[in-house]
Write a structure and sequence with these properties.
Layout: H1 3-21, E1 41-49, E2 52-61, E3 64-68, E4 72-76, H2 91-102, E5 106-111, E6 116-122, E7 125-126, E8 131-137, E9 140-141, E10 156-163
Parallel strand pairs: 1-10
Antiparallel strand pairs: 1-2, 3-4, 5-6, 6-7, 8-9, 8-10
Length: about 160
């Protein structure tokens, strides 16, 4: 493994680990009490790259299995890591739905220890070991992985390229 690949793998693991351990796995969604269902919700998704806006649109989404070239196929429905007792819509599922319906690519690595994906690239824009894709909902970075956070109707989901 080259030094660059090692550094990227360590950086990626550190970012994901920090995100997933900074709050309890079943963190509540502020302003939206209770457990939800996996009924489809309509949310706004924005993807902001280092050079500007890559995507903005409304998406109808629910938690579902997600397949990426690097990560394979895994569930991404809020039950990941025991975050919710039943399936719910999630930010990473929303990105996946946006990509499929609007015909753009994204990729993410699957981390079994975290039971979640780490978004690596969107529309061929990668962090490349110097940045990561931050996920926020309604202007606040999520405290858990993108397959663990529950979305509600009208939420604003943002994937933002963020330099270290």
């Amino acid at each position: 493994m080259t030094t660059t690949l090692r550094r990227r793998a360590l950086t990626t693991a550190a970012v994901l680990g920090l995100a997933l351990t900074s709050a309890p796995a079943a963190a509540a969604h502020p302003g939206h009490p209770g457990h939800g269902s996996n009924a489809p919700v309509r949310v706004s998704v924005t993807v902001q790259g280092p050079e500007g806006l890559l995507f903005r649109g409304k998406v109808r989404t629910r938690g579902h299995d997600v397949t990426t070239p690097s990560g394979g196929t895994h569930r991404c429905d809020g039950t990941n890591a025991g975050a919710h007792p039943t399936a719910v819509p999630t930010p990473t599922a929303a990105l996946d739905d946006a990509a499929r319906t609007r015909h753009f690519d994204w990729d993410g690595t699957w981390y079994p220890a975290f039971d979640d994906f780490l978004v690596e690239s969107v529309k061929n824009v990668s962090g490349g070991g110097v940045a990561y894709w931050n996920i926020s909902v309604n202007g606040t970075s999520i405290p858990v992985g993108g397959c663990q956070f529950k979305l509600n109707p009208g939420d604003r989901v943002a994937f933002t390229w963020t330099a270290f």
